[in-house]
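Input structure tokens:
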């Protein structure tokens, strides 16, 4: 049996017993456990952060494996939801940590509940809608957020500490393509950049848990592969819609139907805009004439003309479609009337 004091001794030397106790007591939500989110989660898990809530909407894809820590080829072959694969792996890494898997599409309807009771929110997202939604929740509720982003050979992190520095909207204007998660498919992504970005982000999370938020608020670090890291101080915007005017347009938005290309794989994510599915009924109907397998809250359709994963929350991942319109047509063909 490992003595807890021995297990974290090298962190106690760095942070003191009090600092380490705060890290152990920490409750952190990681929203998106793909590249940066999974690497960040692994660092926190090994350090003994007490409770990790792992929120992700996706399944492990073989195209994720070059940059995602925590997953392996079996997870990809079985299309295991990332949140579940991450929680299982973390349980093996450090039994001190409570790893809570939440397979869900985080959106304006559920984000406040998903963020409830957490000390730090971590942005592991692959799209700007979720990123700005997290910023709205953080600023409104007064909970710190660690922003992380990695694309191509560039990575960036910044701590948003409400009341002590700028927020994400002081730094970035929302782009037109809020739901686009296809940057990996266009520009590629460096696994070294992803790991370096997550490491810088995890350092911010540790500082926030230790109560040192004021010292790290608004410090934007950028990493470039190969080569260097720069850090600058970001100023608060004088007329920031979120942290000055307290207008939370992402949090107040209506959750609408959408189709987006997934970052990690050859799939489109489709949400029809309706209510959650009764998976049992969908499975029963589709199994008349198609090859259907059900595992927990997922339904796999694998047939000659269609390959899809259907989630209880009303979404589906559609594989092999040539464009968004065809993905939506396949979704409607499978799920119309649900
Ligand atoms: Zn702001």
């Amino acid at each position: 049996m490992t003595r807890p004091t021995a297990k974290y001794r090298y962190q106690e030397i760095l942070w003191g017993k009090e600092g380490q106790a705060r890290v152990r007591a920490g409750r952190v939500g990681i929203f998106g456990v793909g590249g940066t989110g999974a690497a960040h989660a692994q660092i926190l898990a090994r350090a003994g952060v007490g409770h990790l809530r792992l929120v992700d909407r996706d399944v492990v894809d073989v195209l994720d494996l070059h940059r995602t820590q925590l997953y392996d080829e079996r997870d990809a072959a079985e299309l295991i939801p990332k949140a579940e694969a991450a929680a299982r792996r973390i349980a093996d890494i450090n039994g001190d940590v409570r790893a809570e898997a939440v397979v869900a599409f985080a959106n304006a309807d559920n984000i406040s509940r998903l963020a409830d009771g957490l000390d730090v929110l971590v942005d592991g997202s692959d799209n700007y809608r979720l990123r700005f939604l997290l910023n709205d929740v953080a600023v409104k509720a007064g909970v710190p957020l660690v922003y992380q982003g990695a694309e191509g050979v560039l990575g960036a992190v910044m701590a948003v500490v409400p009341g002590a520095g700028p927020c994400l909207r002081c730094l970035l204007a929302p782009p037109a393509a809020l739901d686009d998660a296809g940057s990996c498919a266009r520009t590629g992504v460096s696994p070294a950049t992803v790991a370096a970005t997550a490491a810088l982000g995890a350092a911010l999370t540790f500082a926030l848990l230790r109560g040192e938020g004021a010292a790290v608020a608004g410090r934007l670090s950028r990493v470039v592969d190969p080569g260097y890291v720069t850090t600058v101080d970001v100023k608060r915007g004088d007329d920031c819609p979120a942290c000055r005017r307290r207008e939370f347009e992402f949090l107040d938005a209506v959750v609408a139907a959408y189709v987006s290309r997934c970052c990690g794989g050859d799939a489109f994510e489709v949400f029809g805009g309706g209510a959650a599915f009764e998976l049992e009924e969908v499975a029963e109907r589709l199994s008349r004439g198609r090859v259907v397998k059900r595992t927990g809250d997922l339904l796999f359709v694998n047939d000659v003309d269609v390959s899809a994963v259907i989630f209880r929350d009303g979404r589906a991942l559609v594989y092999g479609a040539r464009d968004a319109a065809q993905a939506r047509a396949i979704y409607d063909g499978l799920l119309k009337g649900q």
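Residues 191-209 form the longest helix (19 residues). The pocket of zinc ion is lined by residues 166-167, 169-170, 237, 240, 242-243 (CB under 6 Å).
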